[in-house]
Design brief:
heterodimer; A: elongated; B: mainly alpha; about 90% helix; rod-shaped
Chain lengths: ~240, ~30
Amino acid sequence: MPDPQKQGAKPLALIGVFIAAAGFAAAMTCVYRGMRDLMLNSGGFCASGGAYQIAPGHECTAGQTGLLTFGILAMLVLGAALLGASGWFGGSSMTGVGLFMWAALFGSLGYNFLDLGISPPPRTSGAGAWIVCGVLFMLMALGGLIPGIMAFWSYYKQEENPTDPKYATFAEPLVRANVNFKRSMPGDPAFGISDPIEAANAQGPPIGGTPQAAKQVETTNDFVDPVTGQTVSRGSGG
Amino acid sequence: MNRAWTWLIVTALGSCVGIYAGIIISNSAL
């Protein structure tokens, strides 16, 4: 785990968080207001006219489409920037900010659906479906808000107790194997010995002299007993 | 101060500024 004292305040990261949060909020406000204006004045959808389009009353202004199109694009870019700046400031555990952005987006748009679904603008049909959308959006917002709060709380507790082993990041092994392996194969020259060095001494020099010779045994298709180390010739047949 | 609080305050301040800017932008667009 990185030492919190060494991490410092990271003023540049904080400035990045501020700018990205402001940009994301501005883009989200544009989307919210563009959507609301479209629902209030254009019946909730855009149609530019033509033989097979329901155009009257649904012609959208350039402001509405511009706010929605560029607002969504800006929100994606600035949301990623906020995620990156937050991660730079607080480490990987700060990435829960994405859940807050999710909750803010679906919460604000869900409020539009619910508010205008309950009291729809005049000459609007199908506002009941907006209530369904609103409930769905609110549930999706809750699905981000609750784990977002939990992630932030976890980060808060981690910052309060940085030495708590609960927040160890496995930079070093926490558990090591402590197995007392005892040679137990009958016929093994090192039978009953658990120390690997003693076991190697008890087995004596490798059969056939040098290790190169042992390799040659393997390539001659002979069988080497893994317990006793004896070479058993398989003969030429078979 | 806990860095979590620092982050939260900076993000909240940025969001307030952003919402204000968003209202100005959308007012001029609509």
